[in-house]
Description:
Mean pLDDT: 85
Strand content: 5-15%
Structural class: mainly alpha
Radius of gyration: 25 Å
Largest sheet: 3 strands, mixed
Shape: elongated
Number of strands: 3
Amino acid sequence: MMALPWLLVLELVLYAGCFICGIISAASLTITQGHFAGRCILYGSVHLNATGQTLTMESSSSPSLCYFVSAISVFVSIYCFSLILYWLYTSCVDRDAKRERSGLNVTLMVCGVVVFFLLVSGCVLRIGREHLCLHILQTLPSLFSCEEAENKTWASPYDGSQFSSGLHRAERSVWVNFFFWILIVVVVAVQRRHGGGFRGPAWNADETEPFFFHRPSRI
């Protein structure tokens, strides 16, 4: 089994964290959407019925908006899981694996794309959640926070008992994921700066000696 460089090990640990964050984000948003009959409550508004006893959704975003945010988290998780499996497999079967500079360049480009989409997802979740909460507080002036609306009665088929915590959990997971990917960019950039290539333990000591130790002998 090949001993992986510590920078690559750190990169894989970060990928594992990104995988977990992606699953949490997608699951939290999907569950929240399911509690509202498939409606995407981001950027939505609520209505208090005439009796003043129950809340109902007055407007909501297109379901595709929530699907888009969830899909980004799912694809990022799949990508991270695939990379972890790939390097674990490589470390077991290939004792002379090399990570070329061109591969690191591709990794940096992929990281840039992922960071961009995570930034978009985080902004959509934050602004959409704040828009919804602002409308709830305007509709129910007696409330001091959006979380208090979870204790209110929601008209069927809606279940708002965990809508705020679910959206907040999804948003927090996306931002943690975003931070991990920034760290991955730094780690990959450091590997690229140091050449990126590495070999297994079979690389003998002669290959690692500085070139000035191999001066030709004088006659």
